[in-house]
Amino acid sequence: MKFEKICVLGLGYIGLPTASTFAVHGADVLGVDINSHVIETLNQGEIHIPEPGLRESVSKAVQSGKFRAAMKLEEADVFIIAVPTPFQENKTGEYQGIKYKLADMRAVTSAAESIVPHLKKGNLVVLESTSPPRTTVDLIAPILEKSGLKAGSDFFLCYSPERVLPGQIMRELIENARVIGGITTESAQAGHDLYATFVKGEIIQTDATTAEMVKLMENTYRDVNIAIANEFSRLADKFGVDVWEAISLANLHPRVKILSPGPGVGGHCISVDPWFFVEAAPELTPLIYHSRQVNDAQPQFVIQRVKHALGSLKDKKIAALGLAYKPDVDDLRESPANEVIYLLQKQGAQVKAWEPFKPDADMKGLQIASSLDSAINDADAILLLVKHSEFIKLIPQEIAKLTKARVVIDTVNGWSQKDWNAGGFNFFRLGDGKSQTSP
Ligand code: SAJ
Fold first, then answer.
1. Phi then psi for 148, rounded to 5 degrees?
2. What whole-number distance in Å separates Cα of residue 125 and Cα of residue 169?
3. Does the C-beta of 12 come closer than 6 Å to ligand 1?
């Protein structure tokens, strides 16, 4: 099956790389977004999201005339929905005393509704947004059928999850295996033919609900596994054990692969997606729910460690290194670093944060330093919150010259206790019950 014109709805972290990749591979692509600034930026061949390789891809796509951005849809052969599915802001669900977050499907619903007037026989519609199980069948199909056309017979309908890792999106989009879930086998085949234009990884066809579940299972699996690593960090701390050493020894077992503890789980995927299962079936998901609770409580554990190192936090000056949700990205969404800083401030600490990937970040209630120097110079302690490569490379002897702080607290196993002790610092590490000598 051949599709010449593709309309991508939502030009964010997934929609834009997908749209530009299709265009670079020869399709005629219209990108649609509700944000006029995004549209103007893209039509000039510029980008609004920093992601390695994206600028080159968009600029090539625009220059070749194969990619344009607009605020309104047009008729096309394919419609791809890649809009966000965040939480509902002011509402939670409740099941037997357990409160859980609810998915906000308004963007997906309105994207599907905007396709209705343009939908023609033989079109393919693909939902890529991470969604609760059965969204394609129970939410999207009925909306699209308002066109008078029947899903699965008049037009094809698929769910195909994105599985790319921020920071490596352009490569993983092409190389990763791709799951295509069709509401009929013909729909799955149509989805296969579409993505085969650029995907080099295996393309596997299944049904739509299985594909939705696969996506949620992947991220939930990771969340649960990070939760157990975080719980191990608390146990190690209690028993005077270095959790990082213990994990590396446990991981020598051929069937064990424990992930890394840290200040918590952030980003817009792993900290969000497990809730879609809890919302859909709270009576079946105690493990998933409790893992979310463990990971969300990890910033509190960091505060305990900082208190152990500094005593009362009242008026203590703390330089917080890193605001991003994970190393070497500029994405601050759902970042546990922000939560840690917020909790420190609540306890009376004065925190200056330095995020080299977003020096101009403007976060409500946060004092953002303009450089590493200005973050650390009058600090009492340095708190490492993100394992950015450039933080790992810092040389303790050099840092000692720039700050009066003589305490460092490492929450991500980024630094060596030996090196920082040699640089004149007292060293504390999250989950390392051996690094807890008081200053
Ligand atoms: N983290 C830990 N310990 C670890 C690994 C991660 O605390 O051992 C933390 C990170 O610091 C970060 C959070 O977890 O705060 C999530 O980071 P991540 O690198 O695990 O995942 P994401 O959110 O960047 O991307 C995930 C990926 N999913 C899986 O690895 C199963 C990616 O492939 C998905 O495409 C993406 O979610 C998505 O869009 O759903």
1. 90, -5
2. 22
3. no
Give yes or no for residue 168 CB within 6 A of ligand 1: no
The CA dihedral of 29, 31, 37, 38, to the nearest 10 degrees, is -90
**29: exposed, middle or buried (C-beta count within 10 Å: 0-12, 13-18, 19+)?**
buried
228 C-beta closer than 6 A to ligand 1: no
- Residues 23, 27, 33, CA angle at the centre, nearest 5°? 60
Indicate which atom in ligand 1 lies nearest the CA of residue 329. 24
* CATH among 3.40.50.12780, 3.40.50.10320, 3.40.50.720, 3.30.70.100 for 5-201: 3.40.50.720
The boundaries of every CATH 3.40.50.720 domain in the chain are 5-201, 213-439
Separation of CA 147 and ligand 1 centre (Å)? 38
Fill in the DSSP letter of residue 283.
G
* Residue 376 alpha carbon to ligand 1 centre in Å: 29
Q: What is the mean pLDDT of each run of 10 residues along the chain (439 residues)?
A: 92 96 97 96 90 94 96 97 92 92 96 98 97 97 98 98 92 97 98 97 98 97 98 96 97 98 95 95 97 98 95 97 94 93 97 94 90 97 98 98 97 97 96 72
Ligand 1 within 6 A of CB of 328: no
* pLDDT reported for residue 286: 96
Beta-bridged to residue 94, according to DSSP, are: 99
Best of 265, 301, 387 for a ligand 1 pocket test (most atoms within 8 Å of beta carbon)? 265
Contact 387, 370 (CB under 8 A): no
Catalytic residue among 7, 66, 158, 215: 215
CATH architecture of 213-439: 3-Layer(aba) Sandwich (3.40)
Counting every residue, how long is the chain?
A: 439
Question: Is 215 known to be catalytic?
Answer: yes
